[in-house]
Amino acid sequence: MISQPALTVVRDTLPVIGSAIGDITPIFYDRMFTARPDLLRDLFNRGNQAQGEQQKALAGAIAAYASLLVSEDAPNIDAMMSRIANKHASLGITEDQYPIVYEHLFAAIGEVLGDAATPEVVDAWTEVYWDMSNTLIAAERELYAEHDVEPGDVWSELKVIRRRQESPHTISLVLARPDGGRLPQARPGQYISVQVQLPDGANQIRQYSLTRATSHESWTVTIKAEPGRAEAGVPAGEVSNFIHGNVFEGDTIRCSLPYGDLVVEDAETPLLLVSAGIGCTPILGALNDLVSKESQREVTVLHADQSMASHAHRQDMAQLVAQLPGARMHHWYEQLGARTTNETIHEGFIDLAEVDVPADAQVYLCGPPPFMKAVRRGLDELDVPEDNIHFEVFGPDTWATVPDLVPA
After folding, report:
1. Which of 37, 46, 273, 374 has the fewest Cβ atoms within 10 angstroms?
2. What end-to-end distance do the CA atoms of the chain give, in Å?
3. Residues 290, 273: Cα–Cα separation, whole Å
4. Per the database record, which ranges form the Globin domain (predicted)?
5. Residue of 338, 381, 342, 377 lying closest to 359 (CA atoms)
6. DSSP letter (8 states) at residue 354
7. Domains, the chain, with CATH or none
């Protein structure tokens, strides 16, 4: 718990810290990676660092947490904390790494604020940091305990038993234990971290949704090769392109235990599963789980993509929906070419007005932030309760740039 005097200082200085946090976080990361280059090489996503996305994510998380402490009107950040804890667990983060972050973060705060970083201010924000950190540490400890492993002990080598091309830039890998043993239990919608050693020796980690994990014999992940956009300063995906070019049947790859909180729970209420592009992967995980349980739930699947050719798992998705008696599916494609639209295939962008959305539907949403914001506006217009909307953001969750996705 944070002391009352510290809360008063945090409330008074939140505008100053909040306005400076965008300057603080880049200096923090630069300091930390200078002192500990191994963290950038073997833990943090170098692509996100290059784009500044991780800096935005950290800034948004700290600002949101501090706002919650001092304001009754602040948004509920339980979802944010759960998402961070799950991500940390999938990376094998342990309690002893939090002091490293503290050291370099507060050095950066002192550098940016100068004389304004009085001992009273530093002490108050130290309480904020450790309150947030201890909340995450406790949540991560519970996540490790769910798999009955020691904190950080989440990694194992899995064998690729099948590789399949799913679209021009997307492949799926079926993974199993080399000894044929049982894989841990995974829940529909979860992901695993995958670590590869790149040619420069870096051990980079990325997360990929489990598109199928209905048995203990194998898991399936789908990986899109990210080409990058030089004109926008977006680098090509280091890990995704390495896997596409180098990982084939018979190879082994280092994988974590399954984590993630976009989990489709067993219930009788209707489901609305909405995705765009590679965001279809956790939706596929949910559909495979529903089919394996012979679910009778009412399920509406909506997917948007650039074209039918670029739609990964297009046929898989259709076949899964066909096996669920209560399911129906609609597609939207930006480019349909010479094909014509029909009652389930639409041209353009997703439009919730074209489908019947049950008022009590549990909604699961995954795709690029602009897509999710547009869908969220449509759900608001249909008066879908906010508590019924669950979402996944691929990459750093930049809460400051997607404010209306944070559950209220």
Report:
1. 37
2. 22
3. 12
4. 1-141
5. 381
6. G
7. 4-146 (1.10.490.10), 155-256 (2.40.30.10), 271-405 (3.40.50.80)
| pLDDT of amino acid 232 | 61
pLDDT in tens, 45-61: 988 888 777 787 787 78
Residue 407: CB atoms within 10 Å: 14
CA nearest neighbour of 183 among 221, 160, 149, 156: 156
98 is catalytic: yes
Which class for 280: exposed (0-12), middle (13-18), buried (19 or more C-beta within 10 A)? buried
Cα(340)–Cα(107) distance, integer angstroms: 60
The pairing of strands 271-276 and 362-366 is parallel
Q: Closest Cα partner for 366 from 291, 298, 303? A: 303
pLDDT score for 398: 47
Question: Is the alpha carbon torsion for 284, 260, 105, 151 positive or negative?
Answer: negative
Between β-strands 252-256 and 191-197, what pairing exists: parallel, antiparallel or unpaired?
Answer: antiparallel
In contact, 407 and 379? CB cutoff 8 Å:
no
From the list 101, 90, 40, the residue with the least C-alpha distance to 206 is: 90
**What is the distance between the alpha carbons of residues 383 and 371, in angstroms, rounded to a whole number?**
19
Q: How far apart are CA 267 and CA 260, in angstroms?
A: 19
Model pLDDT, residue 397? 55
The SS3 of residue 368 is: coil
| Distance, CA of 347 to CA of 403 (rounded, Å) | 29
Contact 299, 326 (CB under 8 A): yes
Q: Compute the half-sphere exposure of residue 14: CA atoms within 13 Å on the CB side of its CA.
A: 19
Catalytic residue among 140, 226, 238, 392: 140
* The pLDDT value given to residue 407: 34
Q: Which two tokens stand for residue 115?
A: 């004389």
Residue ranges in the chain whose pLDDT is less than 50:
398-408
Give the residue carrying structure tokens 């096996």. 323
Catalytic residue among 29, 65, 98, 333: 98
Predicted pLDDT of residue 395: 60
* C-alpha triplet 59, 63, 68: angle, nearest 5°: 150
The angle subtended at Cα 255 by Cα 277 and Cα 159, nearest 5°, is: 100
Longest dimension (CA), the chain: 68
Neighbours of 309 (CB within 10 A): 12
**Type of residue found at 180:** G
Identify the CA nearest to 291 among candidates 317, 269, 313: 317
